[in-house]
Amino acid sequence: MASPQSPAASAGSLDASPPSLEQLVTHFVNAKRALSSIHHVWRANEVVTQARQLLEDDAVLSSKSSFLRKAIDEQLKTLKALRYGIELVGLEGSSEFKALLNSLDESSHSLHSTLQTLRDNLIHPELQTPGTPQKFLFDFIDSSNVDQLEASLRQCIDRTNEADSALGDTIDAFDASIGRLQDAMTACPEVSVLNAPSPLPESFHSLESHATETASLLQSLVSHYDLCVTALKHTEGGNEAATRATSTESPIPTGADLPPDMDPNLQVNLHQLSLDVASLQSDAPPAAPLTEAERADMLAVLANDATEVDDVVAEIRDRVSDMEALASGMSAHIDSLQSFYTALLAVYRLLKDTSKEIPTYLDACRAFQAKWGEEKSRIEEGVLALEGLREFYDGFLDAYDGLVAEMERRRQVERKMEAIAREAAKKLDKIYQDELDARNTFHITQGTHLPSDICPAVGLPPTRYEIAATTPPRDDEGEEEAPVEGQADCADDSPAQPPGDDADDKTAREGLRMPNLPKHVVEATKQRMEQRRAWRDGGGGGGSGG
């Protein structure tokens, strides 16, 4: 709307006829009705006030939600780190357990391989006392130690598996707790409200712009109304016509009806409006007269502005409607933010409940570490014990093969001694026979001339030497008397003594004769000894080596 001093309006007044009193009254009535738009302005003011509170709520809720979300994310990271630490303890224990089981399996396999070799090795009959049942090397060992040791190790393995299973249940429970927290975070509505700048400041700025514009539009309506009042005051019969036309109209709001937080300039203008209406309806003297030119300009402006009153009122209504829509969007954003904050509070309460379970999870982890430490020591000791038994039984195998080799060596020595003894016996027999022949010759040539009592020993037969095998007594039968150097067993021609203790010793000695092992048995034994020696020299620590 143009002001009364508008040059355009003054120029236009030259071509337009001045409005009649009836037209002035119509413009006045329309202007007064247009002032009811003040209710829209009041609503605009309410919308801005409410939006200002929403803007404050947005700042508070955004700050709280952002802080709470970051705190929950940090706690979730901490929980995941704790969970990973517990899992790492289990993985390290499982890795050590598998390595120990591999060592245990190798030691057990080597031991059982040695035991199987003992079961397969038959004691050669030549090495056993005649008449005894056939035996194997395994019959000479006590395998109950192996059974007890393996039973103990199986119990260690079972206890370790139980501890590992308990730790696995703890990790599963921890995963379930973290999963519930993550599901609750995922279920939070409108998580994106914190990921972008808030739209409320821009909306509030638009609301303020609309409110300012509506106040300006209302100010133009007030100015137009004021112009109508002035025109009526300077028109004959204007007061009476205006009074009759507005007698049924609703009163114009006064300053007392205005909200206290309304724009101060608007409050002043509306207060002045109420004063103008009061003066128009009173019996006050008319205003100072105007010249014809001033009155013509005023009426031209009034007529031009009267055509825009309806458009101004419509614009005020549209702007307030837009403000309502913006305020509704702001309120929806706050509702979404409030829902998100409420959901975060629920997640936080769930997080507090989960934190109470953490000591239980950590205690389970420590219990697993302590249990595994105990069982690890027992299994390591068991592996060493299995290795010790294997080495002992391998030593038994070596000793048996060494026995076979020793028996063969002794047998060879006996054969050499027997050959030497046979050769010596032949020489002794020849010397003895030559001595008999020499004595007979002496007896024939000289004996008839010698008296018998001159030398009784001359008639004795020569001493006969024999080579006999003897077995020294065992430790429990006393020590063997060392023969005098140069002394040999000798026998005369006296009758043989009846068999007695010597015969019994001879029978016992024959029962303990040196075994005569077959050649293939001895060769096989030597081959096994060479294989085991090569296996050990080559770094093979386990097994019997064949």
From TrEMBL:
It is found in: Cytoplasm; Preautophagosomal structure membrane. One of its GO terms (molecular function) is kinase activity. The keyword Kinase applies. Its main location: cytoplasm. Residues 537-546 have a biased composition (Gly residues). Residues 403-430 form a coiled coil. It is a peripheral membrane protein. It comes from the Eukaryota. Residues 467-546 are annotated as: Disordered. Residues 34-449 form the Autophagy protein ATG17-like domain. Keywords: Autophagy, Coiled coil, Cytoplasm, Kinase, Membrane, Transferase. Pfam families: ATG17_like. The keyword Glycoprotein does not apply. Autophagy-specific protein that functions in response to autophagy-inducing signals as a scaffold to recruit other ATG proteins to organize preautophagosomal structure (PAS) formation. Modulates the timing and magnitude of the autophagy response, such as the size of the sequestering vesicles. Plays particularly a role in pexophagy and nucleophagy. Belongs to the ATG17 family. This is Autophagy-related protein 17. It comes from Phyllosticta citribraziliensis.
